[in-house]
């Protein structure tokens, strides 16, 4: 079977890795418009591996992806650095009760977690002092991954197993023949294939439209900030996510990487930075975590997370014979290898994909 993957971000890399290791593709080609891989969402993220997910359809994929980073498959050409610092999901009021329930469900997927008191959370992370929280879910197996090493290792391993990576090749059209998508036209020639996978991230809807599909996968912009060095930082302290109010932080470069969980509609491309986000971030972090009131900012950037209207992944083969690995929202780092495995099994063996995540639910 000849397979073509469009996009060399984490979604495309996960699919390519899983397909190539099977040894069952006659040819496997990855087409990327940029001159190097992962220049968009896959290098603009917070690199956090968080296993407790509100969406029960995503939960097992998050658990699988995190387990793979801890165990590191023997076929990976390089070790992918993963700092298993753990996570604290902090919450207050009704969302504290809801978070405890989500954690209970996650445990049934083998995710190790326990509820801890506010005092215990502050003992782990001093910057939580003064925060209005009722408690926290402690997940010791979560952490932070070297996201560039993950992408590189997936692509290098795929190439080692026979995949061809072609950069500077923008897909401008899809070849539709015999009731299916059978290749792509690029800025530097055409490539024929039996199966085409759309892993184009924020451009997934654009690529799908080339085969006549009209799926509303939309990018939302989000900013990340890195602070000045922080004297209260403890070595190896966990990442913190306030699920009640939407904010997170984790250690980065001697300070904190922080996010106010902002989202605003954007066009596919390199997102513009909104300078007003500096003040909004500072105000939101101070309100959630008063101990961070005086924290100075060193740098910031923005990235695009892409979502279907129901915010669930868009996976599997559509009615036009195009496979999708898209709409991974804010979970693509954690789940890319699980998504890759699912897609490979669907392509090679016709293994069904859960209806909740299947592209055909979108009509
Ligand atoms: C601010 C932010 C924070 C995040 N934090 C986390 C986190 O902590 N943990 C987590 O699990 N996830 C996180 N994510 C989500 C994660 O980064 C994404 O889900 C993931 O990177 C999506 O990968 P992708 O391959 O689908 O998209 P991309 O990385 O955007 O890759 C798509 C690729 O397709 C290429 N392409 C597009 N159109 C064409 C075309 N016509 N022809 C050829 N190539 C094309 C693009 O150039 C690009 O390289 C975060 C995302 C953002 C933005």
Structural commentary:
With 363 residues, this protein is of the alpha+beta class. The chain has 2 domains: 2-47 and 147-216 and 309-362, FAD/NAD(P)-binding domain (3-Layer(bba) Sandwich); 87-140 and 218-307, D-Amino Acid Oxidase, subunit A, domain 2 (D-Amino Acid Oxidase, Chain A, domain 2, 2-Layer Sandwich), CATH 3.30.9. The protein is built from 8 helices and 21 strands. The chain has helices at residues 10-22, 59-71, 94-107, 118-124, 147-160, 204-209, 277-288, 332-349, and strands at 2-6, 27-31, 48-49, 82-83, 87-91, 114-116, 135-139, 143-145, 164-166, 171-177, 180-186, 189-192, 195-198, 218-227, 239-242, 247-252, 255-259, 264-265, 297-307, 314-317, 323-326. Strands 5, 6, 7, 14, 15, 16, 17, 18 and 19 form a 9-stranded mixed β-sheet that branches. The chain has a 6-stranded mixed β-sheet with strand order 9-2-1-13-21-20. Strand 15 and strand 16 form a beta hairpin. The protein binds flavin-adenine dinucleotide (FAD). The site of flavin-adenine dinucleotide has 40 residues, from helix 1, strand 14, strand 19 and helix 8.
């Amino acid at each position: 079977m000849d397979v073509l993957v469009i996009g060399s971000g984490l979604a495309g890399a996960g699919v390519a890795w899983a397909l190539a290791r099977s040894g069952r593709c006659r040819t496997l080609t990855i087409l990327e418009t940029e001159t190097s891989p992962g220049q968009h969402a896959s290098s603009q993220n917070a690199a956090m591996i968080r296993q407790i997910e509100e969406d029960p359809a995503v939960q097992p994929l998050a658990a699988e992806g995190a387990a793979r980073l801890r165990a590191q498959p023997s076929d990976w050409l390089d070790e992918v650095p993963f700092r298993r610092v753990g996570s604290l999901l902090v919450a207050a009021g009704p969302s504290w009760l809801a978070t405890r329930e989500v954690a209970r469900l996650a445990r049934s997927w083998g995710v190790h977690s326990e509820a801890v008191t506010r005092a215990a959370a502050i003992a782990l992370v001093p910057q939580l002092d003064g925060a209005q929280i009722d408690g926290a879910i402690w997940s010791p197996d979560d952490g932070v991954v070297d996201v560039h090493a993950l992408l590189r290792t997936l692509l290098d391993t795929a190439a080692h197993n026979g995949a061809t990576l072609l950069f500077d090749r923008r897909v401008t059209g899809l070849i539709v023949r015999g009731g299916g998508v059978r290749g792509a036209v690029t800025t530097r020639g055409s490539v024929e294939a039996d199966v085409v996978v759309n892993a184009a991230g924020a451009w997934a809807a654009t690529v799908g439209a080339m085969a006549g599909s009209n799926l509303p996968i939309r990018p939302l912009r989000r900013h990340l900030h890195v602070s000045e060095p922080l004297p209260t930082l403890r070595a190896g302290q966990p990442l913190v996510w306030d699920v009640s109010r939407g904010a997170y932080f984790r250690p980065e470069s001697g300070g904190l990487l922080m996010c106010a969980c902002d989202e605003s509609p954007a066009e596919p491309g390199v997102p513009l930075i909104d300078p007003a986000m500096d003040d909004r971030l500072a105000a939101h972090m101070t309100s959630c975590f008063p101990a961070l009131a005086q924290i100075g900012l060193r740098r910031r950037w923005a990235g695009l997370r892409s979502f279907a209207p129901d915010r669930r992944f868009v996976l599997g083969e559509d009615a036009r014979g195009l496979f999708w690995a898209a709409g991974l929202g804010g979970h693509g780092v954690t789940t890319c290898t699980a998504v890759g495995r699912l897609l490979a099994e669907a392509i090679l063996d016709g293994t069904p994909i859960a209806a909740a995540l299947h592209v055909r639910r979108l009509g």
